[in-house]
């Protein structure tokens, strides 16, 4: 029997994606601190965002200064710069360099989300399902599972794997939507095809149990093995146990077929 565990997005995953973005933008920014600052002071939103990224990371010839970073992110966000809106929203959610203010974080995430930013959309889904520790305050945004589902769906429809994973969890639990294992499987499957290791484990588990999809040990083994190939440490050991639990009821021919499918699998296989 597989040891099923419910998975929810960890906000740190979203934060790490957010903070990966300024670094990427900075690499393409106008070279030179003085020139960057001059552009920012003349109101160039991209330069303001890049300057904020410099101060946030302490790179580019400046000393790390998060309040100053937030100042430049604010100027860019006020001009509609979606990445600045997203990043400043993270600052307000965490209280990093600005007073913690979940309501302002949601406002900024919404501005970026309405522009199609999948990270902001996913953040809104997370916040509306309940702000996770350690970011909770006595002024948190009220839980609204239907709104959470709406934002997860918007990001998932754009191919955001974490949001597809979260939407699958919503369908499995019946949070904000009618409980529907078939829908849950479909969204786990989409996230798995996009490379999410946890989703691959869930797809394997659902194939093994026949939950939301016809029972199929060959497909179960394949998806669990794909997850094993991505995992490390304790997570990998758990996945190996799950995979072997399926293998114990398979014939040698079935295992060989599952391994053939693993070897043949590519992202286009989705």
From TrEMBL:
The UniProt entry, under SUPFAM superfamilies, shows: HCP-like (SSF81901)
Gene3D superfamilies in UniProt: Tetratricopeptide repeat domain (1.25.40.10)
What's a Pfam family in this record? Sel1
Q: What protein name applies here?
A: Sel1 repeat family protein
Question: What is the originating organism of this protein?
Answer: marine metagenome
